[in-house]
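We now fix the convention by which a protein and its fold are recorded. These numbers are not coordinates but entries in a learned vocabulary of local backbone shapes. A record is reproduced here so that you can trace the correspondence yourselves:
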Amino acid sequence: MLSSHFAIGILTAVMTAATVFPASAASLEEIKSRGSIIVGIDFSHPPFAGVNTKNDQEGSDLETAQLLAKDLGVKLETVNVSGPNRIPFLLSNKVDIVVAAISITKDRLKVIDISTPYGVIPLNISAPKEDLVKAPADLAGKSIAVASGVTADIELVRSTKDIPGVEIVRYADESTTRTAILTGQQKYLASTLSDLGEIKKQKADLDLELKFTLKTYPMGIGIKKNSPELLDWTNKWVEANIQSGKLNDIFVKWFGQPLPADMKSFDIN
């Protein structure tokens, strides 16, 4: 049910944006001629992307975008996006591509093109250590925090739709969701593993641990539809850098584990 609402929401954003922004995205040749590629990155979502104590931008998605721009032979320009607006920013031509932990789903593929997977996103349930939670059925009667509209939200709805008493509390983005956990407003969290790590970094003694994985999604680079040359170049770039191990090195650096051996074996929901 939420998947449909998610797609409708994105389509509404497209129609709104179309009245203000031009319809066509920059082509591969236009990006090369410009000498720069404008990439949407969510810097509120470490370790995918964030800002360190020295106020420097960092993260796996940033390094992925840096590598892509280098191989394309252009400068990298970044635009800060959020979970809810990253696809509208792409559709309204505020960015050329989006490298912002975009899970590959059938609903998203109706709205944008997404490259061959360059990484993965396990979607997890975290809860207080003493709580016995091993499966979606154990969430009966629980209140669970999640960022609105992201894949964790969609998967949480799908996994708990037949479980009584589940209350899904949606927040504007991942950063706001983490704050709800850190301040004690919420005790249960549906998110990526990176969010749990960031919460523990900020409050090491917080009684919160990973309980189980809802689903592992592949993630790809978002590209506006009707950009076949840019999509083809990006797919070939991803495949080459998976084979060379460069994308695996980035993933290991930021997540402490290697990419799956077969990056094309995922079922897309």
The domain at 121-216 is CATH 3.40.190.10 (D-Maltodextrin-Binding Protein; domain 2).
